[in-house]
Design a protein that fits this description.
Layout (H helix, E strand, L loop, with lengths): L1 H25 L19 E4 L15 E2 L4 E5 L4 E9 L7 E16 L5 E20 L2 E17 L6 E11 L6 E9 L3
Parallel strand pairs: 2-5
Antiparallel strand pairs: 1-4, 3-9, 4-5, 5-8, 6-7, 6-8, 6-9
Amino acid sequence: MKQISILSSVLIALTVDVTSAVEAKIGGDDGIWPPPEPCAYSMEPEIKSLGADIKVFNKQAVAPIYIGGKRYSLSKNDFTPIVEKVTYTCPGLEPLVVTKYTGYALSLPVYNDFGQKIHFDVSGRTSKYMTLDVSCGSFRASDSGNKFYISRSAITDGSCTQLNLKLKFNVTPNQPSYLDLSVTISEALD
């Protein structure tokens, strides 16, 4: 008799486990019970760097630079933010699109490069650590930190027709609070 009661209790326990397993698969509105853990958008994101299609938020017209010694003052509003769109997906939910800032860019026309030796002075400061890249024709220079100073002479053989300033920083959802640069391109007097 004891053997029969033990077997019947084991049989009842197996029946209960099978029933609860069946209920776990059948219950719920979507046919899945218990519901899966909520997605925290932890799947690998789709990243779209806008590159050439830089978004324009605060576009101001900046005058061209004439080689001749005039100092040009630039602020954050003169630059175009470089942004990266990151899309996080989660099954059953709308995609989450996050805009992240990665830097600033500005291109200015330059006039009067006739092949003479020219001097580039770029200085400024910002509220966060950045890398500043400056180029004009065959001239290239860079500096990094939250204060910048580039002072170099070069002969560009007339190729300096557009000054490109690019500031890069770690990806962040926020823009720096300030950015100020002074740019002077003058003839080097030797």
